[in-house]
Amino acid sequence: MSTPHRFAFRSVLAGLGAALSILLSACGPSGPAPATGAAGSGLTKVRFQTDWYPQAEHGGYYQALAKGFYREVGLDVEILPGGPGAFVGQKVATGQAEFGMGRSDDHMLAVAEGIPLLMVSALMQRDPQALLLHDDDPVKTFTDLNGRTIMAVPGSAWISYVQARYQVKFNVIPLNYGLAQFMSDKTFIQQCFVTNEPFYVAQAGGKPRTLLLASSGYDPYRIIFTNHKLAREKPDLVRAFVAASIRGWDDFLSGDPAPGKKIIGERNEKMTSEFMDFTIRSLRESQLISGRPDQGERTGLLTRKRLEDQMKSLVELKMLSAPLPLEKAVSFDFLPADLQALAKAP
Questions:
Q1: Per-residue DSSP letters for 275-340?
Q2: Cα distances (angstroms) measured from residue 20 to each of 46, 52, 60
Q3: Are 344 and 316 in contact (CB under 8 A)?
Q4: Domain 10-126+220-344: CATH superfamily, name plus number
Q5: Which CATH code of 3.20.20.60, 3.40.1390.10, 3.40.190.10, 3.30.1230.20 fits the domain covering 129-216?
Q6: Under 8 Å between Cβ of 111 and 117
Q7: Would the N or C end of the chain have less CB density within 10 A of its end CB?
């Protein structure tokens, strides 16, 4: 049994700088020329590179596409499917795509390696990664992980963070992206996406429970980023893309998601309506996109304080040797006006 999801690998950062140098050299000092919209359309062509195949976790963007929100702001958006070897950061850095998606911690590490990327909006306020457990497993908190074995992505920052913060030790075995071992062993724990694997476990007759990793205190954003050149030369385009994307997410989660689901289903036959409905419920219930209103979180919002805290965590975990100037990694100026004051508040 396997699942159609993915995890980020920070090990690729070691070779990313060298690979990017080669790509930039091949493309010339300005990178590939941006695509243009259809002749006579009056629209500006924009390529958005996703991290995985079409899925409901990307639903707001497909909703904005389906309902014409991008066209209303003058953009002809092409959503490029990801998957293994998508190389989202490299494509955006070299101008092969105008926008990409990732995680704020991975983004900071990439910027520290000299990759010219700029965070401009949040995709998710909460990271959907979680620990997958059987419902009767005695592990209820992160402290309870002491002495256990977890199948996870080796080297993930959350592992070091949880062990240090909760003073626990647990063994890690490499994630194989399947569920067979979990289904056959009632004591097994593995890394998952709260929006994904629990659906398949329940379908197979299991009773899953999850422990959201963001609840540990290690809480990166899922983000949208562009490259510095585009942000500098076409700021209005960046603002338009961000605003229409936020509108798409609000509509997808608060209104009828059918238009976005239709495109996703057409582009990825594995995305059944039942599975997408599960994912949408998970996004809503865990407040992954909109965040927690009582804490001032909003769809698309990035805040200076939270990003500074994340950078401090990366330094403490020795994943960064020193804090980066935040302006190298993020700009709050492309958020809608009503979010900018929230973003820059101390």
A1: HHHHHHHHHHHTTTTT--GGGT--TT---HHHHHHHHHHHHHTTSSSSPPPHHHHB-STTS-HHHH
A2: 21, 21, 30
A3: no
A4: Periplasmic binding protein-like II (3.40.190.10)
A5: 3.40.190.10
A6: yes
A7: C
In a 3-state reduction of DSSP, which class is residue 159?
Answer: helix
Which residues on neighbouring strands pair with residue 101, listed in sequence order? 224
Residues 32-58: tens digit of each pLDDT: 444 555 555 799 999 999 999 999 999
Six-digit token pair at 221?
């954003």
In single-letter form, the type of residue at position 10 comes to: R
End-to-end CA distance of the chain: 47
Within 101-166, residue ranges assigned H as helices are 104-112, 157-165
Per-residue DSSP letter, 34: P
- Residues near 149 by Cβ (< 8 Å), separated by ≥ 6? 170, 171, 172, 173, 189
Tokens 């980020």 correspond to 8
Q: pLDDT (tens digit, 9 = 90+) per residue, 191-212?
A: 999 999 999 999 999 999 999 9
**Nearby residues of 300 by Cβ (< 8 Å), 6 or more positions away:** 121, 122, 242, 245, 246, 249, 335, 336, 339
pLDDT > 70? residue 317: yes
Q: What angle do CA 184, 214, 290 make, to 5 degrees?
A: 115
Here the tokens at position 205 are 């007759």
